[in-house]
Design goal:
Elements: H1 2-23, H2 32-55, E1 60-67, H3 72-89, E2 99-106, H4 111-121, E3 126-130, H5 135-148, E4 152-154, E5 170-172, H6 177-190, E6 195-201, H7 204-219, E7 223-230, H8 238-249, E8 255-259, H9 262-274, E9 283-286, H10 289-296, H11 302-306, E10 312-316, H12 322-335, H13 342-363, E11 370-372, E12 390-392, H14 395-403, E13 407-409, E14 412-414, E15 426-433, E16 436-444, E17 448-450, H15 454-457, E18 496-501, E19 511-512, E20 519-520, H16 522-532, E21 540-545, H17 554-562, E22 568-569, H18 577-580, E23 584-585, E24 590-592, E25 594-599, E26 601-603, H19 616-637, H20 648-661, H21 674-703, E27 706-708, H22 714-719, E28 724-727, H23 732-739, E29 747-750, H24 753-762, E30 771-775, H25 776-783, E31 789-792, E32 799-801, E33 804-805, H26 810-824, H27 827-836, H28 859-895, H29 903-915, E34 926-930, H30 940-949, E35 950-954
Parallel strand pairs: 1-2, 1-3, 3-4, 4-5, 6-7, 6-8, 8-9, 9-10, 18-21, 18-22, 28-29, 28-30
Antiparallel strand pairs: 10-15, 11-12, 13-14, 15-16, 16-17, 19-20, 23-33, 24-32, 25-30, 25-31, 26-27, 34-35
Helix pairs in contact: 1-2, 3-13, 4-5, 6-7, 8-9, 13-14, 16-26, 16-27, 19-20, 19-21, 19-28, 21-28, 28-29
Length: 956
């Protein structure tokens, strides 16, 4: 773009010269040849100027580097940056003769010193700065580089808050901790842990990194349960570290994430080993600072390595390539024993990135020029020499060139995405073992955890499913391969506060021992047995809840867990939706659900008892089918069977009689057609089933004591206006009013089994209730001593009882496993029998149901019978129509008029065919015997006598 601008400027100069010549008085005397010569000279000058511009490149450009020379990262970065400058200057394919002139300054781990040195760079025409390695220094230097428009390329500042919007001239040439903390969070979820403890340096690097970890864990329903900040000083004393780790030892989480600098990190591990916190049960996850130490300072002293056995850590993943292998082989000659870490590789590539950008900047007409800062001119004479600082005029163009660079370096592809972050963020997952370490897998933003290198997965479709997340086995602290549980009860003498309801009814489930703080009952025994199966001790104490005068609200009890007043709740607590939203429940240890209990009475048989076996629809459908079957058989037999012929009145009586007589298998009319017999056989089978069912039901009604109730379940109770009782404190009240929309005015709170019985006996007329809705365990215990009430209908909710704990509590998971063990070994049933098995009533305890037979039990039989009728009628009428079509052409030919039969006559003919008598086919064994000739003279008397004398003898 700039070369076009210069061309335009040169052309403008030519035009100005031309205008001056035009205004000269000598122009009229100039001949055309001189004018052409003048234009050629201007054009040559233009071309010469343009060519001179394109080839005018500076012999050198000044770049700066700011980092801490004497640090784990700085020692490696210093060698890598200097070597990269040498390689760039010796490469003829880049910069075309322009050399990089590097000036390095030591920030000495100080943001202030780094800023002062950056200001000094502004006095020496530096076009870009590489560094710093510290996130704290990067924040301060970014303010300076923004004002001076000098790109800042940091190979080690991983603070996620160094955003491009706030610091547009800051460019991170490594991966942000935003991705590293995402990898740590996925590690936590992969191993099934829910809470972690974060230990971090209290500066921009530590705080913002842990904040990113907190956000990543929250997305996966995990959290940081405890945060411990450490002094940002380069060295922390053992006493300070010991005080912090002692506090950590008192919390329950055993998954520790260490996000500090290398100097502090080694002290933390040594103190943790001294305190026994590097033993079995602990999990240590260190961020990439540890791999920087392992790679650059290996081998470490034995006491240091022994203090970090079993630690998981991360390292920036750099793909294996020929460029990387060549650089690593050359490193041993350059390093003087200093190991190469990932930040050294990024520092090397940062120089090459800048070289490619400067080359593109110059190739596109970029001019390296500086101008004074107008804002600082007023400070002239202050003694700070601020007027010597200058702004890089081409800083924006160089920054744009940096963002557009795309090449492959020793760390892999160096290319920025739309967020100005390097593409393909990925990490190696390292397990420290013995005198070294072992790689157990990879993490990439593309496919998550894997044992396959990320560059291989980039060629496939992304798959973040849990089944696709794999890592090799890990040796955890304590030299064990068993996955740590990740938490223990804190060893601080604190007991769990377990809330227990103070019930005043149904004390067999849970009740307080008078004069003590202990409780007993079915629920308490289950909890005690489950806790005894845990592989660790659980100190707890019971906290009574309620005034002891009435049953407390269980929802209020559960709510106290969310406020921190209680650590759990034990009792007959139903697992319902509104409670599961705020707490976690264990596996249900008792089945539960709402049922309806109502009074019942013995029903007398009465004079009309014979009608009770069938419901009204059943009676109606059965009667209709009797008439339908009679009509179908009459249609099928009418043409061939004399018993189904005759006057209409006789035929109607025959149909009714035939259909009703089949009920007792007493029909005397024979069927001669095949279709009629098929229909009749199927119908007789249906009648047999109906007769048998009716007989069995009527026998039961007349001989067995029947129990009746005005309600048949929750729907009939809901449809009525009768008052309903419920237990005080039960969730039944909420369910009836909110879920079933039953008016609260119909509900009565009852507090004891005696109140249940009294209210049911009174009934609605005397101020009692028509029915009671409560959970099945209570009702079963109630009915064991009350024999005049029964459960009516089915259980209309399905739930269970469980123990409540705070959200994401690991104790809820472990107790669930214990409850399953109690169920499998029979201990749960033994506890149930101990508390809840009572002497039941002698009467049948079965639920009251309607004793009638309903249509739904027989619709299959009726469907089969109806299909048989439809098929038979279809076949029959098909034959009739076929016969009618054969007869119609013959009669049309007899008429001789060439026209068909008129429509009225066709209908009459069809009806006559249906009604005509058709002789049945005679079998081989049939013969005709007559006493007189079948025909006489043409007299009617002779014919009539002949018919009377005709006798058909059918041999068997």
């Amino acid at each position: 773009m700039l070369d076009h601008i210069v061309m335009i400027q040169l052309w403008s100069s030519c035009i100005l010269v031309w205008l001056k010549v035009r205004n000269c008085a000598l122009l009229p005397q100039m001949k055309a040849g001189w004018l052409i010569l003048f234009l050629l000279i201007c054009f040559g000058w233009l071309v010469r100027g343009s060519g001179a511009y394109n080839i005018s490149r500076p012999s050198s450009v000044h770049i700066g580097a700011i980092f801490t020379f004497d640090s784990t990262i700085g020692r490696v970065a210093k060698i890598a940056i200097e070597e990269a400058v040498k390689d760039v200057n010796s490469d003829p394919h880049i910069l075309a003769g322009t050399e990089l002139n590097l000036t390095s300054k030591n920030s000495n781990c100080s943001g202030f010193i780094g800023m002062a040195e950056a200001l000094q760079f502004m006095e020496t025409d530096v076009i870009a700065i590489i560094g710093p390695q510290s996130s704290v220094a990067a924040h301060m230097l970014s303010f300076v580089t923004n004002e001076m428009q000098v790109p800042l390329l940091s190979f080690a500042a991983t603070d996620p808050t160094l955003a491009s919007l706030e610091f547009p001239f800051f460019l991170r040439t490594t991966q942000s901790d935003l991705y590293q903390m995402q990898a740590v969070a996925e590690l936590v979820v992969h191993y099934g842990w829910r809470e972690v403890v974060a230990i971090y340096i209290d500066d921009d690097y530590g705080r913002n990194g842990v904040s990113a970890l907190d956000d990543a864990l929250a997305q996966m329903r995990c959290k940081i349960s405890y945060k411990v900040e450490m002094s940002p000083r380069s060295r922390a004393t053992r006493g300070e570290v010991m005080d912090l780790l002692v506090k950590i030892a008192l919390v329950e989480s055993r998954v520790l994430v260490l996000h500090v600098n290398p100097d502090v990190g080694s002290v933390v591990f040594q103190v943790a080993q001294y305190l026994g916190m590097m033993s079995s049960g602990f999990v240590w996850i260190a961020t990439d600072w540890l791999t920087s130490v392992l790679d650059s300072s290996s081998p470490l002293p034995n006491e240091v390595m022994n203090s970090m056995q079993g630690v998981l850590t991360l390292r920036h993943h750099t793909p294996n390539s020929d460029i990387k292998k060549a650089f690593i082989s050359k490193w041993s000659k350059l390093s003087n024993g200093v190991g190469l870490n990932a930040y050294g590789l990024y520092a090397y590539d940062s120089v090459w990135l800048l070289a490619h950008a400067v080359d593109g900047f110059l190739n596109h007409g970029g001019v390296i020029s500086f101008s004074n800062v107008s804002k600082l001119l007023s400070a002239r004479g202050s003694g700070l020499n601020l007027e010597a600082m200058s702004i890089f005029d081409g800083g924006a163009l160089l920054l744009n060139s940096l963002l557009n660079v795309n090449f492959t370096g020793v760390t892999g592809p160096m290319k920025f995405n739309a967020d100005r972050s390097l593409i393909y963020p990925s990490y190696d997952i390292i397990n420290v073992i013995g005198n070294g370490y072992r790689q157990v897998g990879y993490w990439s933003n593309y496919s998550g955890l894997s044992v396959v290198p990320p560059e291989t997965l980039y060629t496939m479709k992304p798959n973040r499913s849990s089944e696709n997340q794999h890592l090799h086995s890990v040796i955890w602290p304590g030299e064990t391969a068993t996955l740590p549980r990740g938490w223990v009860f804190p060893n601080n003498g604190k007991q769990l506060r377990i809330g227990v309801p103070r019930r005043v009814s149904y004390l067999d489930f849970v009740s307080q021992v008078p004069g003590t703080d202990t409780f007993k009952g079915f629920c308490i025994d289950v909890f005690t047995a489950a806790v005894s199966l845990l592989p660790y001790p659980v100190p707890y104490k019971y906290v009574p809840f309620g005034d002891g005068l009435k049953n407390p609200s269980y929802t209020d009890l559960v709510t106290l867990i969310t406020t921190g007043d209680l650590d759990g709740a034990v009792g007959d607590i139903a697992i319902v939706t509104n409670r599961t939203r705020i707490v976690d429940f264990t596996q249900p240890y008792a089945a539960s659900g709402l049922v309806v209990v109502a009074p019942f009475k013995k029903s007398n048989t009465g004079a009309w008892a014979f009608l009770r076996p069938f419901s009204l629809p059943m009676w109606g459908v059965t009667a209709c089918f009797f008439f339908i079957i009679g009509m179908v058989v009459w249609i099928l037999e009418h043409r061939t069977n004399d018993e189904f012929r005759g006057p209409p009145k006789k035929q109607l009586i025959t149909v009714i009689w035939f259909s009703l007589s089949t009920l007792f298998f007493a029909h005397k009319e024979n069927t001669v057609s095949t279709l009629g017999r098929v229909v009749l056989i199927i119908w007789l089978f249906v009648v047999l089933i109906i007769n048998s069912s009716y007989t069995a039901s009527l026998t039961s009604i007349l001989t067995v004591q029947q129990l009746t109730s005005p309600f048949k379940g929750i729907e009939s109770l809901r449809a009525s206006n009768a008052p309903i009782g419920y237990q005080v404190g039960s969730f039944a009240e909420h369910y009836l009013t909110v879920e079933l929309n039953i008016s609260h005015s119909r509900l009565q709170a009852l507090g004891s089994p005696e109140a249940y019985a009294d209210a049911l006996k009174k009934g609605p007329e005397k101020g009692g209730v028509a029915a009671i809705v409560d959970e099945r365990p209570y009702i079963e215990l109630f009915l064991s001593t009350q024999c005049t009430f029964r459960i009516v209908g089915q259980e209309f909710t399905k739930s269970g009882w469980g123990f409540a704990f705070p959200r994401d509590s690991p104790l809820a998971v472990d107790l669930s496993s214990s409850i399953l063990k109690l169920s499998e070994n029979g201990e749960l049933q033994r506890i149930h029998d101990k508390w809840l098995t009572k002497n039941t009533c002698s009467l049948d305890n079965a639920e009251i149901e309607s004793d009638r037979l309903h249509l739904k039990s027989f619709w299959g039989l009726f469907l089969i019978c109806a299909l048989a009728c439809v098929v038979a009628l279809t076949v029959y009428f098909s034959k009739i129509i076929h016969q009618f079509r054969q007869l119609s052409p013959a009669e049309s030919d007899q008429n001789g008029d060439g026209h068909g039969i008129p429509r009225p006559r066709r209908l009459q003919k069809l009806i006559s065919i249906i009604d005509e008598k058709k002789e049945p086919k005679q079998g081989r064994n049939k013969r005709i015997r007559t006493d007189n000739p079948p025909f006489s003279d043409n007299s009617e008397d002779g014919s009539r006598n002949a018919k009377k004398q005709t006798q058909i003898i059918i041999d068997a």
